[in-house]
Structure prediction request, 388 residues.
Amino acid sequence: MGRVTFPERAAEIDLDALRHNIRHLRDVAHPARVMAVVKADAYGHGALPVARAALEAGAAWLGVAHVSEGVALRRAGIEAPILAWLHTARTDFTAGVEHGLDLGISGWELEHVAAAARELERPAIVHLKIDTGLGRNGCPPEQWEALLARAVAHQEEGLIRVVGIFSHLAVADEPARPETDLQVQAFRAAVTAAENAGIDVEVRHLANTPATFSRPDCHFDLVRVGLGIYGLSPFADQASEDLGLRPVMTFSTTVANCKEVPAGQGVSYGYAYRTRKPTTLGLVPVGYADGVPRIATGAPVLVGGRVYPVVGRIAMDQCVIDFGTTGLVGTPASPLGERAVLFGGSDAPPVEDWAAAAQTINYEIVTRISDRVERVYTSREGGDGTGS
Ligand SMILES: *Cc1c(COP(=O)(O)O)cnc(C)c1O
Prediction:
């Protein structure tokens, strides 16, 4: 790979790492197959290049939340099965059926989907979702028999084809918790009820990333993995490499300004930080409009092989690091223009350090990196994932 010329603000997406993660997850889940979850613009990594690379590496399915996300992938030429599971009364079910998306059904959506299928004279592909305890979407167990009966009736009429039964886990990132056992039991019961109702269930799926690693009894026929394909760990006590994963996103910019200041210099809005001795401040030109959480003061930034903390308030467009020394400005050692890596890559802080500083999880940090940050796709292996 030739050295990439980085734009001013870059989220570098390592598609080799992504393909590695998919292949690794395929091994972990085997013989179950892998659904690569690419909702929310692939957790901020770019839905289309990620979808293409994931399929190249052997993902069998794609998963999205919204029908519109699935339709966008179809319009870009993706032909693999795509499941969309979060709908509203305003969802364009007709577009979903027309584009051959698989649709997750928790209850009320079934009639909308059947109506769309009737209008298009094309059967809708459906996965029925049981709420095994998460308490969000999914059919409550006491309404499951009724949903099955309606689904069977529509299937006999040729309006739908039920190919899957699925559910979502609540506490799989804490493998010792007993509630997952109850969810597995409830799931098995729901599958049995579907089979007894005469449904030929092709794919049963329950596992997310944490359950794929920690609960082989949740694998069934298909695992729905999001976080893991991006190379990140869902567990508090295990890092990416402990799971055999490689982080995919590296978020970087360049030091935009560099200046010496005296002791007592207030830094950024509110003067939440004042220098204690003469020092050099570096301006890092990313802020909360770029997806850098405003509360993450203290989070690390790698410049020239060393890590420096963000000091003072993070603003909309920028934040400041303290180099802790003087005598740099105007010398060859000046960090002005140096690459500043917030997270990702081999020597830089892991995204989990930013998550900790922001009191959140790695999922949220990568997903919220904004459009102002250019995605740069790198790939050594065949296929650059951009389809060009
Ligand atoms: C987002 C999502 C997933 C993926 O979860 P990860 O923890 O990122 O693997 C799987 N299933 C459903 C229903 C989801 O909403």
